[in-house]
């Protein structure tokens, strides 16, 4: 990423911060979105005010790994900006919500998934998600699923998934889990991988 563009972005934000505090959030989003597009046009800006009226600006990656990396690059260079709270990447909100896709209503927590593992990369976790009308030409399921996972898991936790695949729900296996269980599964998988790494390291040390 171009570090000069990141620095110029933050300088522009510092210069405008005092005016942001007087603006409606929709106008703040419009301004910041225009400025940050020079760094990465795919970064999404969200804005609200807390109970004390303090402006809160969040930069998200929309669940897209490359864009989330761009957001983290912004975070590395962030300066102190008085009376504005900045956050980077979405926090987890859980999967207890519904989405309406052109009249197709989905209870997200009940979407089925199956873990995917790779023998060559045993510490890497992917998931298959089973959705209705997976091959529908007007449904961009990859983008939809990215947003679902980013919202439910939070974008930081989502980065533990190395691969996400969308499959039609006519193929759901009997042992499939549901998205409501995904966060717990990732925690279990990471704990298991860490234990395996420590065990292998100890064994290697004993052999040397």
Task: Give a written overview of the molecule.
By secondary structure, the protein is of the alpha/beta class. It folds into two domains: about 5-90, no CATH class; about 100-205, no CATH class. About 40% of the residues lie in helices and about 25% in strands. It has six helices and nine strands. Helix 1 (about 5-20) packs antiparallel against helix 2. The longest helix is centred in the last third of the chain and has 26 residues, at about 180-205. The radius of gyration is 20 Å and the shape is globular.
Please give a quick description of this structure.
With 208 residues, the chain is of the alpha/beta class.
Q: Would you tell me the structural class of the helices and strands?
A: alpha/beta
Outline type: globular
Count of separate structural domains: 2
Distance between the termini: 42 Å
Question: Which percent band covers the strand fraction?
Answer: 25-35%
Indicate the radius of gyration in whole angstroms: 20 Å
What would the average pLDDT be, to the nearest integer? 86
Total strand count, please? 9
Order of helices and strands: HHEEHEEEEEHHEEH
Question: Could you give a short account of the major beta sheet?
Answer: 4 strands, mixed
Strand numbers in spatial order across the main sheet:
8-7-6-9
* Poorly predicted spans: none
Number of helices: 6
Into which percent range does the helicity of residues fall? 40-55%
Q: What structural keywords apply?
A:
208 residues, alpha/beta, 2 domains, 4-stranded mixed sheet, 3-stranded mixed sheet, 9 strands
């Amino acid at each position: 990423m171009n570090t000069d563009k990141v620095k110029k972005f933050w300088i522009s934000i510092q210069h405008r911060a005092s005016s942001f505090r007087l603006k409606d959030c929709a106008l703040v989003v419009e301004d910041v979105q225009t400025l940050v597009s020079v760094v990465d046009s795919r970064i999404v800006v969200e804005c609200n005010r807390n109970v004390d009226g303090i402006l809160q600006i969040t930069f998200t990656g929309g669940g897209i790994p490359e864009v989330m990396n761009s957001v983290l690059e912004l975070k590395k260079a962030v300066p102190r900006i008085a009376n504005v709270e900045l956050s980077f990447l979405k926090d987890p909100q859980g999967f207890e919500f519904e989405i309406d896709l052109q009249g197709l209503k989905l209870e997200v927590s009940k979407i089925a998934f199956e873990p995917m593992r790779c023998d060559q990369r045993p510490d890497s976790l992917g998931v298959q998600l089973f959705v209705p009308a997976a091959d529908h030409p007007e449904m961009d399921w990859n983008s939809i699923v990215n947003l679902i996972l980013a919202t439910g898991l939070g974008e930081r936790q989502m980065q533990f998934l190395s691969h996400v695949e969308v499959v039609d729900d006519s193929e759901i296996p009997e042992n499939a889990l549901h998205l409501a269980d995904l966060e717990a599964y990732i925690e279990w998988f990471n704990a298991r991988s860490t234990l395996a790494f420590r065990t292998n390291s100890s064994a290697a040390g004993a052999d040397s």
